Amino acid sequence: MAFSPSEFRSFQLEKIERINHNVSLFRFKLPGSSDVAGLPVASCVMFRSNITKDGKTEEVIRPYTPTSLETAEGHVDFVIKDYPKGNMSRHVHSMKVGDTIDIKGPFQKYNWQSKPVEYVGMVAGGTGITPMLQLIRKIFGSNSPYKNTKVTLVFANQEEQDILFKEELEGYEREFPGRFKLVNVIERPSDNWPGPKGFVDQGLIEKVFPHPDIEDSIIFVCGPPPFMEAVSGDKNPDKSQGPLKGILKSLGYVQDRVYKM
User: Fold this and answer.
1) Are the beta carbons of 181 and 153 closer than 8 angstroms?
2) How many folded domains does the chain comprise?
3) pLDDT of residue 40
4) Please, what is the Cα angle at 122 between 121 and 127, to 5 degrees?
5) Rg of the chain over CA atoms, in angstroms?
6) 122 lies in the same domain as 249
7) Nearest to 138 by CA among 73, 74, 69
8) So what's the pLDDT on residue 115?
9) Cis peptide before 124 (omega within 30 of 0)
10) ∠ at Cα 197 (193, 202), nearest 5°?
11) 174 annotated as a binding-site residue
12) Cellular location of this protein (predicted)?
């Protein structure tokens, strides 16, 4: 296996692909051309680098979710937003092809394979789409055993240009009209935006998600801290799940059927 959960290993940046004004895809080369990342759904890895800021150098470690398929050979992809105050994201965006970074993992967030359900709700904000995309690809892949699973994705972004993987997500909706529903919510929409505007709110979630009483269901939430706080409550500082709060709590969803990615 190319990655190790017990030690950091060095991986070389092979490709950079600009996705929009502040998000890029970074492709890292695996040791062998036929190697696969073997990262289970849904999992993340840790990036590590020594970063100098204001004359001080310190080790920075941050989690990132791969967006390439488990079976992709020879490489692993990450879609990363350039946050002005994000030490690691700024560092990654400053990298050039041929540079290396240390990666350790995988660390499984949620074991979907052992706990598949029939109804899945997803609430994603910005790059919080990446773990959701892992799972969507697993559920709707060509050899997927999850033929009865239904997914509703509520995807919140500031502007229309911020919608990541737009064509792929719309493709799932066209191909699986009875099983996949995409709801894009735009905070600052153009005048002709046809969908929901502003922020994700209680009325929208109540309208499109499975009822809280449905036992064979799970709600996944991922996004920046203020988004998490509003929808479900954020994780604890130690990254454990923390108490359920926010919109989902108000609607009657229970702790064991909500998972914060």
Assistant:
1) yes
2) 2
3) 82
4) 175
5) 18
6) yes
7) 69
8) 75
9) no
10) 150
11) no
12) Mitochondrion outer membrane
The pLDDT of residue 110: 85
Whose tokens are 């105050």? That residue is 85
pLDDT in the model for residue 27: 97
Q: Is 88 annotated as a binding residue?
A: yes
C-alpha distances in angstroms, 35 versus 1, 7, 30, 31? 8, 18, 6, 7
Q: 128 and 64, same structural domain?
A: no
| 81 assigned ligand-binding residue | yes
Q: Is 95 annotated as belonging to a binding site? A: no
Q: Would you state the pLDDT for residue 55? A: 83
Query: In CATH, what number is assigned to the domain containing residue 176?
Result: 3.40.50.80
pLDDT of residue 49: 94
Decide: helix, strand or coil at residue 72: coil
Residues 137 and 249 in one domain: yes
127 is in an annotated binding site: no
What residues contact residue 211 under an 8 Å CB cut-off, 6+ apart?
none
CA distance 48 to 211: 41
Q: How many residues does the chain have?
A: 261
Backbone torsion region of residue 24, taken as left when φ is above 0, otherwise alpha when ψ lies between -120 and 50, otherwise beta: beta
Domain shared by 67 and 142, yes or no: no
Average pLDDT across each block of 10 residues of the chain; the chain has 261 residues. List them in order: 90 95 94 86 91 87 89 92 90 96 91 83 95 92 87 96 94 96 96 93 94 92 95 92 96 94 91
CB 201 within 8 A of CB 247: yes
Of the candidates 67, 53, 65, the residue with the CA atom closest to the CA atom of residue 17: 67
